[in-house]
Design a protein that fits this description.
Structural class: mainly alpha
CATH superfamily: MetI-like
Strand content: under 5%
Helix content: over 70%
Distance between the termini: 39 Å
Order of helices and strands: HHHHHHHHHHHH
Radius of gyration: 23 Å
Oligomer: single chain
Shape: globular
Number of domains: 1
Number of strands: 0
């Protein structure tokens, strides 16, 4: 009993140290976003919401936030439109080079972002496409499509083929079978992959750096601002991003939990 207690204590201590290592910097960021002093001195000298109020008056920052939402939403939609059919094709059909394709689909994820950015930049220059937020969307979708394909394909592997076969025996068309049988079973994987793609696209810097035109995204705006020093407004923006990320995580957990209970 004593050895079990010591083992549990050691494990909980390790978990606490790990969580502190991960999240103490985030709590420091949040604390400084409410500090009434512009200097990053500890302890904070007072409480204020002025830095959040100033965000509403910062036109370039607001434009960068809207651009980031536009890019992340566009990249997420594009990855889902391409990735879900690709996962279905991998699951249902046999074709030459299928194993190689399954491995190559992960290549954009494993490559450094700078490599993907330079490659996409060369391609757009070759075809004469001007750099814009749309080129950033295509770059992000290329880098993130492997996430959708792998997650949806893994979920499809857990769906018994007998479900679709039973639907076909009852006279359902392939499209009806997909809508009534396949889609409900992979919905949680699609939502999870979409949320992950959105978050990764929202804070992507290397690919964005090479493919953006005159319009700034939020990570690029923060990067350019930090070269002049950390400001309380940046801490406030970081706090908002943390809160939004937590909301997306909670939504993903709720959706996944509901899907598992239905199954």
């Amino acid at each position: 009993m004593r050895s079990r207690f010591m083992a549990d204590t050691a494990f909980m201590t390790f978990v606490a140290a790990l969580m502190a290592f991960l999240y103490i910097p985030i709590w420091v960021l949040i604390a400084y976003s409410f500090n009434d002093s512009r200097s990053l001195s500890w302890p904070p000298t007072g409480f204020t919401l002025d830095w959040y109020a100033r965000l509403a008056q910062n036109g370039p920052l607001q434009a960068a936030i809207l651009n980031s939402f536009y890019v992340a939403a566009g990249a997420t939609i594009l990855t889902l439109l391409v990735g879900v059919p690709a996962a279905l094709a991998l699951h249902r059909f046999q074709f030459p080079g299928k194993s190689l394709f399954r491995r190559l689909i992960l290549l954009p994820i494993t490559l450094p972002g700078i490599v993907t950015g330079i490659s996409m930049l060369n391609m757009f220059k070759l075809v004469g496409a001007p750099l814009s937020l749309e080129t950033v969307i295509f770059g992000h979708a290329t880098a993130l499509i492997g996430i959708v394909v792998t997650q949806v394909y893994a979920r499809l592997q857990r769906v018994p083929r007998s479900y679709e076969e039973a639907a076909s025996d009852l006279g359902a068309t392939p499209w009806r079978s997909f809508i009534d049988i396949t889609l409900p079973n992979i919905r949680s994987a699609i939502v999870g992959a979409g949320l992950l793609s959105f978050v990764l696209s929202f804070d992507e810097i290397p690919v964005t750096f090479f493919l953006t035109g005159r319009d700034n995204t939020l990570p690029m705006y923060i990067y350019s601002t930090l070269r002049r020093g950390i400001t309380p407004e940046i801490n406030a923006v970081g706090t908002i991003i943390v809160v939004l990320s937590l909301v997306l995580i909670v939504v993903s957990v709720i959706v996944s939990g509901r899907a598992e209970r239905k199954e």
